[in-house]
Structure formats: structure tokens, C-alpha cells
Amino acid sequence: MYQVEEKISAEKQEMRAVFAKVIDEMAKEDDRVIYMDCDLMNSIGMAKYWKEHPDKAVNCGIQEANMIGAAAGMSATGLIPFTHTFGTFATRRVMDQVYVSAAYAGLNVKIIGSDPGITATLNGGTHMPLEDIGMMRCIPEVTIVEPTDCTMLADILRKAKDTYGVFYIRLSRKKADKIYKDGSEFEIGKAAKIREGKDVTIFATGICVSEALKAAELLEKEGIQAAVSNMFTIKPIDKETVIQAAKETGAIVTAENHNIINGLGSAVAEVLAENVCCPMERIGAKDRFGEVGDMEYLKKAMGMTAEDIASAVKRTIARKEG
Amino acid sequence: MNAKELNIFAAQIRRAALRAIKKVGAGHVGGSMSMAELMAVLYGDVMKIDPANPKMEDRDWLIVSKGHCGPAVYGALALKGYFDVEELDTVNRGGTRLPSHCDMKRTPGIDMSTGSLGQGMSTAIGAAWGSRYQKRDNYIYLVLGDGESEEGQVWEGALFAAQQKLDHLIAFIDFNKKQLDGFLTDICDLGDIRKKFEDFGWDAKEVDGHDVEALEKAIEDAKKVQGRPHMIVMNTIKGKDCTFAEDVLYNHHMSFNQEDYEAAIAALDEKIDRIKAGEV
Ligand SMILES: Cc1ncc(C[n+]2csc(CCOP(=O)(O)OP(=O)(O)O)c2C)c(N)n1
Question: Which of A158, B35, B152, B267 has the fewest C-beta atoms under 10 angstroms from its C-beta?
Fold first, then answer.
């Protein structure tokens, strides 16, 4: 079970610190865990681990396609490889290797893509994965998760290790907002409701979760009760929760740090269209490329701020019938 | 430009690149510094270009496949007059024309968008092929990183360019021995790169990448060899001539403060004075 912090504040540590710690712990407990990277060990805080465990950590060099293929081969021998590179290169650079060698072959590879969406900030448009979820969603049998804070990350990494199959884990390297109390546990495929409300449900992932909570506070001042649900598993999407939210609140808004095409918003829209009539709106990159800038600039440029979410909520509620 | 002028230009490019990175206080220092002499030789002397007409049809092209080193290129472009030197202060700020990685849609003088390593190899090959097909009288210059050359795409391109006999493609590898996580020899060793390219059918040579005369001669010699693409392996030092970077192990992406910056600029100014006085 998970518990939500009463007040949201910035984490004390960066996500990558927890990532490095948990990989280390898992590898100590389970010999099958292998860590692979493409020349970004310093960036993700794994250089120390690499020096200490040259037998279990492989720095492949800058050759992502080969890394995924090699990880698939290792997995075929019974190992559990965790691969890391930036989200752009962990997906679009290696699509066919993920598709054929890992997923189609039914193997067990855990793919970490760091710097989701606009969190790539100063690396700019080429490094800003706003389509990674979309591409991965089209590959059968791939589980897609985006851990929201350090507590969730630690839990999800362990669950990914213990759940056979290809995982795509979208990971911010930086400090997140702390949403969950220490020791919280999560069920993959099940949304975590973090705020009650009767007028609308906001489904959010990643950095948009705390923006959604801020939006809910803004809306409360205007008398609108917004529920916020953290849809940290984008695939398989939690259909029951989406349908229930539509029935209970009658309006849905999604908020994601991704293109509104084929990400969380699309997944939720698909469930709604096939099951229940409910107005919805999607917050996210409006089918555009990323660009260079700092977080504040980019959130505004992409329309991912709390204010943007609150406006979308009001428009959506206005479309409710009668 | 003569050798003395080119050496001064290289130091000025380093200065300008550091200024560009300085505004946000962090960036790809190491690889920008190691390619400064090459930028000086190409922009100062070798390339047929017109800063007032960046899209001139018969121009020579430069594709910086290690696109993270945008600041070094922006330094050269600004000094050549493609845009104001002041614009360097906008690097990486929201709305800029000068993002960390080279972007042909935004920056005057940038011939190809890069940032995903390995891809410039193929786009340069395509540009050389397309230029030859349209009977343009130009050369396509390409800069690859040594770490970048671990990408399979580089070697697919190496086979293809030789098969296509693209002799107007002149490529350089910035062989500074380091990638992001340290030395190539500890990560994914390229071995004898010159020999590898030769075996792939290229006209390949190795030079001191900080020696402007050697670079110029290598380019001149390359132009004399017909029927093969050219690879000039530049032996360089990552972080070269930047006081806070050159001797640091992890000098790929660095943050630095005002004090570091001022010391680096002072050292470069001093070098410029020594070059002028004929001491270097
Ligand atoms: C396909 C791809 N993988 C990874 C990266 C991240 N990255 C940027 S620069 C770099 C190291 C490059 O080393 P090298 O080519 O030797 O460049 P230099 O030392 O000249 O800066 C890495 C891993 C990238 N930009 N593209």
C-alpha cells in the first residue's frame, strides 16, 4: 500500500541516487542482475558501481542498438539485464532491436530511458523524448512505467526485476517532488489515487503529477473538486480505474510530459471511447518537437503548468452534458 | 590566414565557445576545446563560404556529427560574422537560435542538425552524394567524435562512402582519447582507427589536431586523392588550452564558475599575446 505525503515538497535526493542504490542492492541479492550502459554512467550516477563491480556492470560504449541486442542475448541465458541510456536513444535509436530481439523473442530486458520529455532541458530538442512512450506502446507485451518519486522508483525497480518481460522505465535523473511516504508500495498496472474529488479526474504521470496537485488546489479555490490519480503505468493501462473515474466524476483530463499523441492521453482516450461517454482533454506536448531551455521556460512553452491543467479542467467540465 | 593568424583564431574560438557556455554555467567543454584548431582552419582558410549568404549553393558544408560541441562551431560562426558575437550569450536559453546541439533550422551557418551520435556520418555522405549528383563544385567536411565512432552507423557509412567513391567527403575524427565516462581504452577501444578506415577503403591519415599547418596540409593532400573518401584522424587533447578542463579526467560536460571562467580567458589572452610575439 502507498501513502501520500500531506504536503508536497522537493525530495532531498536526486532520483539517480536512489536508482544507483537499488541497482546495487538488487545485484547483491540476485546474481542474475546485470547493469549495462552506453557511456552515460557518470550521468546516471553509476560510475562508482561500474568501478566496484566490473563483473556485473558493462559499459558498452556509444552503441545503443548493440547494447539492447546484447542484453536480449544475456537474458536468453537467464540473466536480468537492466540497460540505461537517455530515453531518446533507449527507444527510437533501438526500436527494431527492442522489437525483435527483446519483445518478439519473449525475453526479459529492463530498459531504462532517462531524462523524460522536457527534463532533458539544456540538452535540447534532440535529447527530449516526447515520443518514447508512444513508440514503446506499439510493441506488444512491453510494460511501460514512469516512477514519480524516489519511493516509487525503488519499489518499481524491484517489481520490474521480479516480473518477467520487457519493461520500459522512464526515469528522471533529477530531484522530483516527494509525493509518497517512505515504504509505500505500488501495484504495476494500477493507478495510485492521490487526491479525492467529485467534479473531474486528472490522470497524471511524472513531473505532471505535482503540477496536477497544484492545479487541484487552484481549482478548489474556485469551488471545483478535482481528483488526481497517478497513472504511473502507461501500459497496461488501468482500464477499470479510468472507466470508474469517468462514471464518478464525468470529466477527465490527462497530464503528461510527452506528446499528447500515443502517450497517457491517448491510452486513456482509447479506454473512454470504447467504454463510456465522457468529455476529456489532454495536457502535454501538442505534437511538436522539444527545444532547449530551463524547466520553467519549457513547462510554459509546452503548456504543462498547473495553470494549463486547471484551464483544461474548466473547459472539460463545461462540456459535461446537461 | 597564415599559421600565426590561424593559431590566434583558434584561441579566439576557444574564448568565444567558453563565453557561449558560460551564460548557463555548464556545457560540453572538453570536446569543444579539442576541435578549436580544426574550426580555425576550416572557417579561417579552407572552406568556400559566405557568411552573408549561408545557404550559397556551391558552398562547402560542415557537418559536426558530435553535435554537442555546438559552442565551438558557434564561436567560429560568430567570429566570421554569421551573427553577432553578443548572441553567444543566449546559448541554451529559452527561445535561442543557439541550442547546445547543432540545429540547421535555427542557426545561420549550421548545415545539418545533429545530436544523436553517429548520424552525421550518414547525412554527410548523403550531402556529398547529392552535391556530386548535382555537379556542385564543393566539399563536405565532417567531424566525428572518437567515442561517437563506436556507433555501428559510423561503420555502415564507412563501407557505403567507399563503395560510392565519395572523394569530396573529407572527414575528421577528433581523437581526444576520451568519451563521457572516461578513456576509450577502458570502455570500447577503437584500436588503430586510421588503419581501420584504410581497410574500409578510405584515404586515411593521422595528424596532430592542434597543428594548424599539419591540418591544412592534410586537407590539401586529401583533395589530391581521387575515388576515395578521406579520413583525417586528429590526435587531440580533450579540454585543450582551457585552464579548468585540460587536466581534469572527466572533462566532457562541466560546470564552472566566474572565477574558473576568468582564469581560462586570461590564459587564452596570454596565449594570443605570445602567438603575436612569435613565442608560440
Ligand atoms: C546516440 C547517442 N548516444 C549517446 C549520446 C550522449 N552523449 C553525448 S556526447 C557523448 C560522448 C561523446 O564522446 P566523443 O564522441 O568522444 O566526443 P568528444 O570527446 O569529442 O566530446 C555521449 C555519450 C548521444 N548524444 N547520442
Answer: B152
